Amino acid sequence: MQVQKVFVEYHFSLMWNFLVKLILRNRLANLITIGILTLIMSMFAFKAELSYEYAQMLPESDPVNITYQKFKETFKEDGSIFFVGMKTEKMKDLEFFRDWDILTKEVKKMYGVKEVFSLSNLFELRKNEAIGKFELMPVFEMFPDTQEEYDSLYSRVMDLKFYEDFVFSSAKDIHLMLIWIEEPVLNSKERIPAIYGIRDFIEVFAVSHDVDIHYSGLPYIRTIISQKIKQELLLFMLLSVLVSMLILLFFFRSARAVILPVAIVGIGVIWSMGLMVMIGYKITVLTGILPPILVIIGIENCIYLLTRYHKEIQEHGGVGRALSKVIRKVGYATLLTNATTAVGFAAFLVTGNTMLVEFGIIASISILLMFVFSIILIPVLYSYFSAPKERHTRHLEKDWVNGLFSFVNNIVFKHRSKVFIFTIVLALAGIFGVFQLDQKGTMVDDIPHRDPLYTDLLFFEEHLGGVLPYEISIDTRKRNGLTDIKNINKINELQEVMLTYPEIGKPLSYIEIIKFAKQAFYNNNPNMFGIPGNHERNFIFSYMPKMDTVSTHEMLQAFSDSNMQIARVSARLKNVNTKEIKEINKSLKAKIDEIFPPENYDTEITGTAVVFLKGSGYLVKNLLWSLLVATILISILMYLLFNSFRMVLVSMIPNLLPQIMTAALMGYLGIDIKPSTIIIYSIALGISVDAAIHLLSRYRQQLIIHNWDVKKSVESALKETSVGMVYSGIVLILGFAVFTLSKFGGTQSLGYLIAFTLTIAMFSNLILLPSLILRFEKSVTTKAFAKPILEILEEEETEEDSEDTKQESV
Predict the structure, then answer these.
(1) By percentage, how much of the chain surpasses pLDDT 90?
(2) For 735-757, what is the mean pLDDT?
């Protein structure tokens, strides 16, 4: 085993020396190759497109998803209605109604519109005694010529209880226009011009008549959100680059140290976007924030490399030798830090969620590519310039830098007991805060409450019960089972039960058509809207055509399958959270089973809201698994680097503590666990552990130099890495902080929660980690720790160093 380990170390060292030569002795070839490939990738990158399909959170094999897909096959799409609503008494005016009628007809002609339903084109059932049948006829068969005629027709429409709280609310003067969007348009980029075109056209009507019009529904919500994502993608890219440039300029006081790193991360972003197109992925709410994240991580790489380069210039001088040492001393540690960061993103692959899996794949590959570009281009580009001047390396000796080191050194060596007491208090407070966490979330909770998108949603919730599809299917297991009076009464009973839930809007089913028929039989007397009694049922039913032939309007044939076996009870749900949806489902399902015994009926509660509930819970559960997977994989990588389980355990404590504190912060502030907040943990863990790797790598090297004097080695390691840790920590914290400017709650959470996590991690790695090493020096600093499975080259000057020194003029 020992021989095998020596063999691996020897060949690994040879490989790393070969890499140094490959980078520095083929500078022009490297630049040309990367340049040409980047041009090719840029052609792909410019073809990147936004994803317009609804994010699928459940795997295809999940029972809830199977039920939902089966429902859509039977009754078509449940989330295709674009709601347009207003509260006004002006609808009682003939001239206003005339323009509303024109608007309805013009919208019907617009691209992407499948059907439009509003006051002006409603239908009623009329009893034709001559043929003994009901006829479905438009209420406004002839447009009224006078206000008196219109008043009569308007009053007649208000008496049609079928449409109450569905198309209008007579008591509240609420009027809706329901616009069905064609499914091919709904799931393509054509949705944007279609939805915006409809809205802008209606807004002209709103302005000319001085009325406030509200817009909602899943097609509209999805469109607005996708456009906000597109706008924020550019905004965050610019902000992250600007923040990075300012920090680089402040630290290094050199235009070169600003321009070159920004150019390098720009190359990485181009490759990332090009790779996404090549694989066939589209930009989602997650992949949309990847470019600025790559900028932040890429700049962190450059800072570590440049800080080490400046230090080598200070100590040894000579550009070639300094760059060679940078690659050997920092390159491998940087590879490991990028690998751990990539693992944090790659852990999303275990979630099974398409959007997260795509994000994990692209992010992990892009991060590793960013390392490749950093380790090649920083040495190559800087090799063409003269050595940095003294003013460029002066940042290594600034008073605040020395003050920081003295402060950290003083705490670590003189106040360790206080550090441990403070850590225990923090951990206890963190654990208590974790128990305050709650798992809640709504379908549109990432939208600011002051945003028109959210306030318009509240309008529909207040007046018409919401806009989110909530569906119940009832299989009678018998052909024409829906015509059985027993089943008619049962479904009516169910609808009355649903009306007792304030979160659920008015339910609709084929029962409403039967009630509609009874009202029509009694010459549209609104008081007669209801289920026919036993003595009148045969008369009324004799007027009704077979249910599967009612095809005059699509809405009236959307409540049962073609065999009249399966009924659809359709309602609209308010934007309640997942916990509330779960409670509603549980309570309602129990009542459904009382009305429809499972031994005789097959009933399912489904719809977009239900799928969201299951998907959110599924995603949170799998994201917790992804965090566990990330922790295990990162621990394995660190073991390969340090060859000590004890050292891995000690190093993970300062990096798991920030995770606990972030969860506690969420608990104390009432921030719920949901997919948009829980993804931060795997990302933050992969990034925060970077500082520990850099510190422990230098610590191990200092052990060799100081002949296993632990205290001197810790002090030297802190002195060499503290500046880079603080620099990169500031970049990461401020870089992620730009996401707090997002208009989405989830993206804002990503910004300030990761920034908080990394702030805690920076100080815990600077103070807690070296304190733990000193406290447990005998148990963690073993001979095995000094001989890792994968060796990092030590300080001694090698033959390659001498050769590089001789090649300074190259």
Answers:
(1) 29
(2) 83
What is the value of pTM for the model shown?
Answer: 0.76
The two three-digit tokens of residue 17, written as one number: 């020396």
Stretch 337-355: mean pLDDT, rounded?
83
- SS3 label, residue 528: helix
Which among 611, 646, 668 is the end of a domain? 611
Tokens of 329: 């001393």
**Average pLDDT rounded to a whole number, residues 472-493:** 91
Phi, psi angle pair for 531, to nearest 5°: -75, 130
The three state secondary structure string of 630-644 is HHHHHHHHHHHHHCC
For the chain, how many residues are written? 810
- Is residue 254 within 8 Å of 309, Cβ to Cβ? no
Closest CA to 442 of 574, 608, 575, 573: 575
The residue from 551, 577, 611 where one domain ends is 611
What CATH number does the domain containing 294 carry? 1.20.1640.10
> Between these two residues, 546 and 691, which has the higher pLDDT value?
691
Cβ contacts of 773 within 8 Å, gap of 6 or more: 650, 699, 710, 714, 780, 781
Q: Output the CA–CA distances (angstroms, integers) from residue 217 to 179, 428, 785, in the order listed.
A: 10, 45, 60
Residue 46, pLDDT > 60, answer: yes
Number of domains in the chain: 2
Whole-angstrom Cα Rg for the chain: 33
CB-based contact 304:264 (threshold 8 Å)? no
How many whole angstroms separate alpha carbon 453 and alpha carbon 446? 11
**Three-state SS for 82?**
strand
- Residue 457 main-chain phi, psi, to 5 deg: -60, -40
For the residues 322-326, what does the mean pLDDT come to? Answer: 84
Residue 121's nearest CA partner among 88, 168, 181, 77 is: 168
Query: Are 227 and 277 contained in the same domain?
Result: yes
137 pLDDT band, cuts 50/70/90, is confident
Per the structure, the complete domain to which residue 152 belongs is given by: 63-219+449-611
Cross-strand partners of 137: 124
> From CA 508, how far away is CA 167, in angstroms rounded?
12
119 pLDDT exceeds 90? yes
Buried b / exposed e along 33-62 (16+ C-beta atoms within 10 A): ebeeebeebeebbeebebbbeebebbeeeb
Name the 3-class secondary structure at 180: strand
